[in-house]
Amino acid sequence: MSQVYADRRARLRARCAASGPAAALVSRPANVRYLTGACPPGAVLLLGAGTGAGTGTGTGTATDAGTDVLLCPRTPTGDPVEGRADESLRLTVLPPSAADPAVTAAELARKAGADTLAVEERHLSVTRYRAIGDAAPQLRLADLGTAVEQERLVKDEEEITCLRIAAEITDQALGELLESILVGRTERHLALELERRLVDHGADGPAFPTSVATGPHSGRGRHRPSDRRVEEGDFLSVCLGANYRGYRCEIGRTFVIGTTPADWQIELYDLVFAAQRAAREALTPGAAYSDVDRAARQILDAAGYGDGLAPSLGHGVGLEIEEDPQLSPSAMGKLDACVPVTVEPGVHLPGRGGVRIDDTLVVRQEADGGPELLTITTKELLAL
Amino acid sequence: MSQVYADRRARLRARCAASGPAAALVSRPANVRYLTGACPPGAVLLLGAGTGAGTGTGTGTATDAGTDVLLCPRTPTGDPVEGRADESLRLTVLPPSAADPAVTAAELARKAGADTLAVEERHLSVTRYRAIGDAAPQLRLADLGTAVEQERLVKDEEEITCLRIAAEITDQALGELLESILVGRTERHLALELERRLVDHGADGPAFPTSVATGPHSGRGRHRPSDRRVEEGDFLSVCLGANYRGYRCEIGRTFVIGTTPADWQIELYDLVFAAQRAAREALTPGAAYSDVDRAARQILDAAGYGDGLAPSLGHGVGLEIEEDPQLSPSAMGKLDACVPVTVEPGVHLPGRGGVRIDDTLVVRQEADGGPELLTITTKELLAL
């Protein structure tokens, strides 16, 4: 298992070496986890400049085994550090008195002979950046940019397995809720109930705060559950997902409460469903991100709902619930196989409510059966 | 109500003006909330350079009403923005196509005639900082430092009321759990149950991830609940807190499962209890942070547990669960009245478990009755 992480680090070191910098400092938690399998709170990863002290610039070929260091602060509450180390990764737990682990990492890189350190400028605060510069003024600081995020984009089969399990858990939790009595219960309680069921079925926790939206709230993305109770005739939209071994998926469904949906509810549902299906069908390797977005957007636009739409139709998922790519009109780039994304169009009519339908799918080649739907709960309009 | 926020902003503008900078950009969410009463995701607050375009440097006297702007991105999911605006605060919702609100704020500051912009270097990423510099190269960027955090340190009575209600909710949730059957249930389930009860009693949510630690896990700070089940003879330590209107408190208690605690359990409990009481009694206005820490630490140290202790005995609470001051050996500063802090010593014996006792209290003058205990659940060693 640890070989996976060693390989990922080797790829990143090679990538860094190609563009110059000798050592890299990874501080974004999901990136640290991706590269080491663990991320104790506050830990940072120093790549390519660990134990090779004085031997050169650590240009990061695969032979530089043992040159990565995971630096963990002893947490303020004295918890033991959970971290995985192997022959190619050294684990260093810093004493409570130590400065920022990023500063220690920079000093280590300098001592190991690196002359350049690439840091994650998108994640590092100005204060930490300055502290690194002050502690190791001889180091030239470069920007690692989104190098790790780009490595994370295409998932391997183990990662997809985690996402698949996360989706199974999510479907189970949602399925159980649908069998219970809903009228009279508050959005807040239903959301908590769903989160409890996620954990019951083996999730490490919810992938993001569960959203339950009733009546006039329905159809809004990431609605924060309120004390409004479910009523007869309501649209009910829920959005939830499990976190399984760090991997996060997402499902969103809209139901009608009562026996017979109103005509406007059926029409709106059919429309959003058609838009969502069009976008799902557009998920092929090579498709432009913006084309997937357009497949759904043009249907909703033609029906007169263009103005109120969310700026993006969906997004990548993985170790974070919202990662690259963004499926939006202005996004540049094309889908690859094995990229998991959400497809989540929605229409919300102020004062009346609305519909959102949200799936997590993995882009697959046509020959492999096309897009793999992970969240399989029915998308029929159920009356509950 | 909005006058409270206007006054806070006026104080901060005065503070900034005293040290030079003409406008200030607040991006840390808890700070934005403190100064406006709301914090839509991604919002930033521009102080002292809003509508006074061209009229000068906006040096921020209290007469500069209407010169603050809360800039909110339209969220990717199309949610409506929840923000409060009044005559002294303008709310600007940016279109989905807009750049970072911090960049827009910098451009606005420049247009309004500011020559200096103080930013929160501890919070702002290097990338955002550079984008601000690129967008408004004529602006001199300064560091706002922890100016807002320092304003937040001493709480007003409305804030303390929120904390008191948060503590009441927390005590209720914990009290109910103690009446239920615990043996055989997992840490994870008990934690979820506690969080559900917090919401039942009116919390907006948990103040932080609820910790439930049984047997060998007990006594560890911020232990992440596992699938271990409660057993007869276990120590059970729980740590939870409610978030009420943004204000967060914390309680930690340790219990024994079964009828009769073992001798070592009673001894360890009495010791931690004595240490916690000593620190609580040391909470007086004017007491050095480090002296409060020492009051507890020396007792545990004398008993031979000095090495394994957490680096800090407690911390401030408010809009964040961990804020200034830190009660630690190296902390510089003295307590003021109306500062709420936690007092949470613990001893964990590897393989056996341990004890943590954690209260939230407000520092008060002796004449006002001394420290006000917010979390009133009994600290007797209960056998459950």
Structural commentary:
Two copies of one chain form a homodimer. With about 375 residues, chain A is of the alpha+beta class. Chain A has nine helices and 19 strands. The first copy, chain A, has helices spanning about 1-20, 30-35, 100-110, 125-135, 145-155, 155-180, 185-200, 265-280, 290-300, and strands spanning about 25, 45, 70-75, 90-95, 115-120, 140-145, 205, 210-215, 235-240, 240-245, 245-250, 250-255, 315, 325, 340-345, 345-350, 355, 360, 370-375. In chain A, helix 4 links the parallel strand 5 (about 115-120) and strand 6. Chain A is elongated. Chain A starts with a helix and ends in an 11-residue tail after the last strand. The relative contact order of chain A is 0.11. The interface of A and B includes residues 75, 124, 126, 129 and 195 of A.
Outline:
With 384 residues, chain A is an alpha+beta fold.
**In terms of quaternary structure, what is this?**
homodimer
Shape of chain A: elongated
Total helices of chain A: the number is 9
Uncertain stretches of chain A: 50-66
Strand content of chain A: 15-25%
Give the spatial strand order of the biggest sheet of chain A: 4-3-2-1-5-6
Largest interface, and how many residues on either side? Answer: A-B, 42 and 41 residues
User: How many strands, what sense, and barrel or not for the largest sheet of chain A?
Assistant: 6 strands, mixed
N-to-C SSE string of chain A, H for helix and E for strand: HEHEEEHEHEHHHEEEEEEHHEEEEEEE
| CATH homology superfamily name of the largest domain in chain A | Creatinase/methionine aminopeptidase superfamily
Strand segment tally of chain A: 19
Q: Which architecture name of the largest domain in chain A does CATH use?
A: Alpha-Beta Complex
Distance between termini of chain A?
Answer: 44 Å
Q: What is the total domain count of chain A?
A: 2
Query: What gyration radius of chain A follows from the Cα positions, in whole Å?
Result: 23 Å
CATH topology of the largest domain in chain A: Creatine Amidinohydrolase
Determine the structural class of chain A based on helices, strands and strand pairing.
alpha+beta
The first-level CATH class name of the largest domain in chain A: Alpha Beta
Average pLDDT value of chain A?
89
